[in-house]
Write a structure and sequence with these properties.
71% helix; elongated
Amino acid sequence: MAQYRIIKALLAQAKAEKEKALTYFELLTDKVVGIGDHSTEDYYKNAEEALDKLAKAEEQIEILNRYFPEDNPGKLLND
């Protein structure tokens, strides 16, 4: 079961990163006042970074769920 704990930890981390990225997008789109003195280039760069973080987190979640299904922790490598 120790192997399953590490998978759960990795999945929790990926989900947290996804939420952080989505929160950042929310700040960039809904809370424009929070942007301050950022230039357009900074704003775009920040949006790209948030997208990269979101894509990475989504990919990690998908991979973990595919190979280590939460509903069957005893079956570790779901080939």
